[in-house]
Structure formats: structure tokens, C-alpha cells
Design goal:
83 residues, alpha/beta
């Protein structure tokens, strides 16, 4: 697998994740590992749902806007046991 400057990867054009729905946490900036994961999953045909804690929702929305397509962003804080 080769990562390019736009954080996408190519695997011989295969859509390994076609029809799958993935939850990706931590997409807060376009420089994050989570962003690269979401971009790669989209390239492989997955539908992506993003999560972010309330304090990072606005930044997550900005990062999501840089991904192709529209993506659901769910407020979720993994450190909060009440969620």
C-alpha cells in the first residue's frame, strides 16, 4: 500500500470495503490518522460515519468537508461513561 500526499491509498483499484459502513473516531483535522483512515475507507467503497466529542464538533465538520461526499457526524465522547 502506498500513501499519497492527499492521504488516500490505492490497492489496484479494488473496492475492498464496498457496501460496508464504518465508524471513524477522531477526525478533527485533515492531518490526523483518523482522517487518513476515513479517506482510505471511502476510496475503498465504504460509507463512513464520523464521531467527535462536543468540544471538537466544529473542527470535525471542517475536516469532514474536505472528504468526498456527505458524512454523518455523531457527537460521542468515548471518555464519557454515560454515553
Amino acid at each position: 500500500m502506498v500513501f499519497s500526499k492527499d492521504y488516500s491509498r490505492s490497492m489496484s483499484g479494488a473496492a475492498m470495503l464496498k457496501g460496508k459502513r464504518l465508524v471513524v473516531t477522531g477526525v478533527v483535522t485533515v492531518e490526523s490518522i483518523a482522517y487518513a483512515t476515513a479517506a482510505a475507507a471511502l476510496e475503498q467503497g465504504a460509507e463512513v460515519v464520523l464521531t467527535a466529542p462536543a468540544r471538537d464538533l466544529e473542527r470535525a465538520e471542517e475536516a469532514a468537508a474536505a472528504l468526498p461526499g456527505d458524512h454523518e457526524i455523531v457527537e460521542f465522547d468515548i471518555t464519557d461513561p454515560e454515553q
